[in-house]
Structure formats: structure tokens, C-alpha cells
Specification:
Helices cover 69% and strands 0% of the residues. The protein has 2 helices and no strands.
């Protein structure tokens, strides 16, 4: 009875491993395809990232400066 459970567990593990390998192979980029090094997008991405960080910081500061509503003690 235990061996049947062990065989079933190993079979399920093999099926999951095979399906993960198949999905990861479909998602992974081809090894010969790489992004060009000098396309100039790095400064744009960095500036955009900094802008998003500043916007989030401003939103958090605005939210934290608002007073919390106090519950009624009735």
C-alpha cells in the first residue's frame, strides 16, 4: 500500500517537473537574441523610474499628512 502511494507521488512529481520544464522553455528568450547595448533607452528608463518614485513619495506624504477620522464614542 505504501509503495503504491510512493509510486503515485513520484509520478505526480515527474508530471509537474515535465510541465514546468516545458513552460519555462516556452517563456525563456532565445539565447542568440539580446538587446542592443547602445540604444539609449537606459537613461530614459532611469529617469522614468525616478519620476515614478517621486510621484509615489509625494502621494504617500500627502496621504500621511491627512488627519485620521476619529470614531464616534456614542
Amino acid at each position: 500500500m505504501r509503495t503504491l502511494g510512493l509510486i503515485g507521488l513520484m509520478l505526480a512529481l515527474a508530471i509537474v517537473g515535465f510541465s514546468m520544464k516545458k513552460q519555462l522553455a516556452a517563456v525563456a528568450p532565445a539565447p542568440g537574441i539580446t538587446a542592443p547595448a547602445g540604444d539609449g533607452s537606459a537613461p530614459n528608463v532611469r529617469a522614468q523610474s525616478q519620476q515614478i518614485q517621486q510621484q509615489i513619495k509625494q502621494q504617500l506624504d500627502a496621504t500621511m499628512s491627512q488627519p485620521r477620522p476619529m470614531p464616534d464614542d456614542n
